[in-house]
């Protein structure tokens, strides 16, 4: 099996990066008109900067407000708008679902795509895939595209003003990268591009994990202060670039499959992708019978930044057996990434792993309470 490493054509990150968006597009040999699929916060914060940077670059642009969910219907609506605008480049600006939608629109129209995340909530921006949801909010399918984004531009001045919760959710998504990548590499399974991992991809995944442990708490404090500190810069790079390259070029395993199962539970719909992945990772560690020291390290980090570690933390307090079986059946459907694990996966095993994860999280909270009382 050939080794395959994939990445965006260019990654640009730093304070006030949006000011250079027009110039970056020109430097890549791309041209307008551009259609910007944008969330409401991105429109509010960046409209004036878009007008300025595109005027300077001589690029016409049009903004399409995002409807809120990456569904097949939203992708069709965006493609129709792009055709009507005679767009030659699609830009996504906002959170992960906005960027997934922009990538899907660009792929349908065979156009270049630029991702401009305004929150560091997931590792989606650098990837060549989209997660498509139903109107009810459950995962419907992955769409994998022929190429990665032409440009990922991350304005840390904007991210420094964003809410803390999306950044922490991005840490949850990134937290799983090293553990899932290692499973795939050790098992010799295919990555998201159908090839074997490279040593560089696995090294980036490990660096992602180490950066979270080193800079996660300080990055949360930077957001409270709305400052683009060095810790925040490193953490944003970990959530966005390191995790993105690590997962796509190495692979996914149980944590993301359990996330997909959790989306079938209505109580989880108010929780972000990375929050559910974080709980899925703890369940993965249980499935793999990882050493207690590893589990404790993940639980300690998660609690230090505010990631979920129990069922209650993701909106399903005291779930019924029936609900857990529904989640587990979705997590173990044929071709789901949980089957990259080195053991034969069944719904029963996943139910028990989720229960063990919840128990481990509850025990961890109790131990903290006892220490605080003593």
Layout of helices and strands:
Elements: E1 11-14, H1 21-27, E2 34-38, H2 40-57, E3 61-65, H3 72-84, E4 89-94, H4 96-109, E5 113-117, E6 129-133, E7 139-144, E8 151-155, H5 156-159, H6 164-187, H7 199-225, H8 230-250, H9 254-262, H10 273-287, H11 292-305, H12 321-331, H13 347-373
Parallel strand pairs: 1-8, 2-3, 2-4, 4-5, 5-8
Antiparallel strand pairs: 6-7
Helix pairs in contact: 1-2, 3-4, 6-7, 6-8, 6-10, 7-8, 9-10, 9-12, 10-11, 10-13, 11-13, 12-13
Question: What does this molecule look like?
Answer:
It is a single chain. The protein is α/β, with parallel strands linked by helices and 374 residues long. The chain folds into two domains: 149 residues, Rossmann fold (3-Layer(aba) Sandwich), CATH 3.40.50; 210 residues, Dehydroquinate synthase-like, alpha domain (Up-down Bundle), CATH 1.20.1090.10. It contains 13 helices and eight strands. Strand 6 and strand 7 form a beta hairpin. Helix 6 packs parallel to helix 10. The model has no long low-confidence stretch (mean pLDDT 95).
List keywords for this structure.
globular; six-stranded parallel β-sheet; Rossmann fold; two-stranded antiparallel ribbon; Dehydroquinate synthase-like, alpha domain; alpha/beta; 374 residues
């Amino acid at each position: 099996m050939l080794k395959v490493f994939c990445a965006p054509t260019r990654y640009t990150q730093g304070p006030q990066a949006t000011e250079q968006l027009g110039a970056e597009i020109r430097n890549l040999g791309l041209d307008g008109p551009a259609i910007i699929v944008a969330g409401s916060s991105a429109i509010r914060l960046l409209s004036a900067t878009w007008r300025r940077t595109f005027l300077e670059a001589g690029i016409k642009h049009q903004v399409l407000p995002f409807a809120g969910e990456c569904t097949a219907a939203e992708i069709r609506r965006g493609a129709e708008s792009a055709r009507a605008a005679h767009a030659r480049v699609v830009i996504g600006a906002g959170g992960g679902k906005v960027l997934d939608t922009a990538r899907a629109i660009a792929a349908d129209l065979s156009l270049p795509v630029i991702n401009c995340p305004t929150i560091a909530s997931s590792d989606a921006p650098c990837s060549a895939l989209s997660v498509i949801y139903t109107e009810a909010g459950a995962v419907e399918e992955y769409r994998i595209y022929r190429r990665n984004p032409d440009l990922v531009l991350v304005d840390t001045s904007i991210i420094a003003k964003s809410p803390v919760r999306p950044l922490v959710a991005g840490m949850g998504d990134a937290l799983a990268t090293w553990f899932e990548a290692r499973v795939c590499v050790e098992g010799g399974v295919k990555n998201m591009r159908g090839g074997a991992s490279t040593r560089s991809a696995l090294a980036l995944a490990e660096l992602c994990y180490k950066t979270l442990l080193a800079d996660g708490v300080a990055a949360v404090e930077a957001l409270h202060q709305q400052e683009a500190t060095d810790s925040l810069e490193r953490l944003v790079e970990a959530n966005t670039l390191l995790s993105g390259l690590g997962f796509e070029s190495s692979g996914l395993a149980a944590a993301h499959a359990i996330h997909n199962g959790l989306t079938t539970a209505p109580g989880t719909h108010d929780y972000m992708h990375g929050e559910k992945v974080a709980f899925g990772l703890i369940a993965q560690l249980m499935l793999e019978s990882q050493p207690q020291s590893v589990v404790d390290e993940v639980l300690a980090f998660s609690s230090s930044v505010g990631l979920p570690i129990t069922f209650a933390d993701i909106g399903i307090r005291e779930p019924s057996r029936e609900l857990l079986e529904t989640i587990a059946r979705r997590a173990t459907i044929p071709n789901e990434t949980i089957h990259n694990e080195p053991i034969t996966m069944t719904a029963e095993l996943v139910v028990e792993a989720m229960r063990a994860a919840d128990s481990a999280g509850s025990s961890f909270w109790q131990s903290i309470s006892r220490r605080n009382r003593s």
